[in-house]
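User: I'm new to structure prediction. If I give you an amino acid sequence, what do you actually give back? Let's try with this one:
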Amino acid sequence: MSAWRTIASKEGLRGIFFGWSPTFVGYGLQGAGKYGFYEVFKYFYGEKMFPNMNKTVVYLGASASAEFLADIALCPLEAVKVRMQTTLPPYAHSLRGGWSKIVTKEGYGGLYKGLYPLWARQIPYTMVKFATFEKTVEYIYKTLGKPKEAYSTLQQTGVSFLGGYIAGIGCAVISHPADVMVSKLNADRQPGESAGKAMSRIYGNIGFKGLWNGLPVRIVMIGSLTAFQWLIYDSFKVSLGLPTTGGH
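Assistant: Good question. You get back a string of structure tokens that encode the predicted 3D arrangement of the chain. For your 248 residues, that looks like this:
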């Protein structure tokens, strides 16, 4: 909270929302790809390739595959966002300006410098997110004592919201160290420095404790974000006449 107050007092709302455009575009593309590909891979793995496979294994495999592809769309926008938000003076003041500056100085490869650590952060995150959500929703309906179909769509989306928040807490904890490293890598990686060498140098500077800086804020943020993502996604599915996710 002290960081929020400091930014607000010095820069106002503009400072708090600085870097919103690459965040909005990047996570919009990633979210659409992640949820869409998850449905595809869950059906493909669970119904076509491995019909007798344990459901949790299917959830984990489908979510990992979906995130692998979705991060390819997210990575360039994440690179721009991190540089805008973590350098002083700001690396750029807009998505277009940041993108052009990186490409001009480093080529298109500069937009993907953080891809491997992004995969390291996001793939475990998404595996926990989807598998935990599916199992949590399943457990909620089991605890309630009635099949999902016995409840209204409004009640079902409420279950999705609760399941999403619980899943989000797990996501925040498991992905936080990699999230810190991705931010540091995008902001502090030296020209020509390999990802492994850069991560080793950064870890030497911040230590194990530094990988967990900001975790409480991230838990609140990711828990709420994940809950609303599932609420919006399942509400959209309901509007199309499709069943909500999980609980089957």
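You can read the tokens as a compact description of the fold. Here is one thing that stands out. Helices lie at 2-16, 20-49, 55-86, 95-106, 115-144, 153-188, 195-210, 215-239.
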